[in-house]
Amino acid sequence: MVIQRTALRTMAHVHAHAVARRLYSTARPPRVLVTGSLGQLGTTMVNTLRTKFGGENVVASDIKKPAPEQRSGGPFVYADVLNYRALEQIVVDYGIDWVVHFSAVLSAAGERNPALGLSVNIDGFRNILDVAKNHGLRLLSPSTMGAFGPSTPKDDTPDLTVMRPNTIYGISKVHMELLGEYYAEKYGVDFRSLRYPGIISADSPPGGGTTDYAVDIFHAALKNNRYTCFLKHDALLPMAFIDDCIVGTMQLLEAPRDVLTQRVYNVHACSFSPAQMADEIRRLHSPEFAIEYCPDFRQAIADTWPRTMADHAARSDWGWNPVFGTADIARAMLDKLRPVYAAPNGRTLSAPVEAALAQ
Ligand SMILES: NC(=O)C1=CN([C@@H]2O[C@H](COP(=O)(O)OP(=O)(O)OC[C@H]3O[C@@H](n4cnc5c(N)ncnc54)[C@H](O)[C@@H]3O)[C@@H](O)[C@H]2O)C=CC1
Ligand SMILES: CC(=O)[C@H](N)C(=O)O
């Protein structure tokens, strides 16, 4: 009898917890930490997450000082991904459930400073992964087409293929993909990743990549009607507009775990070269737009990347469905940036954006 009552109490206890867990999970949105949130993608991602889950549920973080407008809308904290304890404290203090890990050193910046690239992209990722493991967090950490290398097939590059990149960035991203898969397999970490193409955004400046020209070209067109490109005229690369990138990232982040047949997905939207984008700018903005080509070390990086990527799995598993092609991207960038450059007080961009573009 006593044993029965104890068993019933235990069952009731377990049931109550199960109900509470269900209620809990449906009653409140996830609390999300975004690292590197002052970068090119972070600003837009934080705004999107806050619209969806509420400002207070999304903790923005970086090692840089935010502009006043980047402080509004929800918490912002200093978080150096090289400091495990500091990351853990944020996770505990804010009750974090999911991490969107955007801190990184991109391809060109990584070749300029390999030691920094290795520490942020490898040591920093290891810390994030360990925090995710130790606190049961869902972790979305993007990879890149830069994870492919010179011996990878360049057209319709599949999810699974030769991966022998020759940049610090690419090597560190392959490491990230494999370590994430290992932690998922071994410790059950809910690790998710997508290999972005070059991302084009008018919201914030790019942070040291090989595809940065495809953002810079619009600022230069509106400011001076001319641009000097650091890639060759025919450097054809996969690209996507920020809206498609963020929608896709949210789709993967929120997808039920059981629909995911793999941990890392190619995502492709369109491909264009500098000359093709210059033609679009002439068509949509000014026939006099002038471009000259002075390829530098970034051309050698671009030479190792795919021209197009196959993304069937992302489309069928969780609904990747980009809508912006090359002409749509050009139109959207010009539409967004025209009013900025037409500012009556002569001020063009916010101070941090101007400072970053001037670097
Ligand atoms: N922007 C693009 O075209 C693409 C981006 N990706 C990936 O998307 C993610 C976000 O990229 P972006 O926003 O473009 O990068 P970004 O370079 O614009 O921003 C990276 C951010 O990381 C921060 N950071 C650097 N060191 C840090 C540290 N020790 N601790 C904390 N934060 C630190 C920087 O302050 C910066 O705000 C990265 O993983 C990148 O590899 C992948 C492919 C294309
Ligand atoms: C494609 C990327 O990962 C990034 N934009 C870069 O050029 O480094």
Automatic annotation (TrEMBL):
Pfam families listed in its UniProt record: Epimerase
GO biological process: L-threonine catabolic process
Recorded metabolic or biological pathway in which this protein acts: Amino-acid degradation; L-threonine degradation via oxydo-reductase pathway; glycine from L-threonine: step 1/2
Broadest EC class assigned to this enzyme: oxidoreductase
Catalytic reactions on record: L-threonine + NAD(+) = (2S)-2-amino-3-oxobutanoate + NADH + H(+)
Domain NAD-dependent epimerase/dehydratase intervals: 32-267
One MF annotation (Gene Ontology) recorded for this entry: L-threonine 3-dehydrogenase activity
Family matches, as InterPro entries: Epimerase_deHydtase, NAD(P)-bd_dom_sf, NAD(P)_epim/dehydratase
EC number(s) per entry: 1.1.1.103
Family affiliation: Belongs to the NAD(P)-dependent epimerase/dehydratase family.
Function of the protein: Catalyzes the NAD(+)-dependent oxidation of L-threonine to 2-amino-3-ketobutyrate, mediating L-threonine catabolism.
The protein's name: L-threonine 3-dehydrogenase, mitochondrial
Organism: Coemansia asiatica
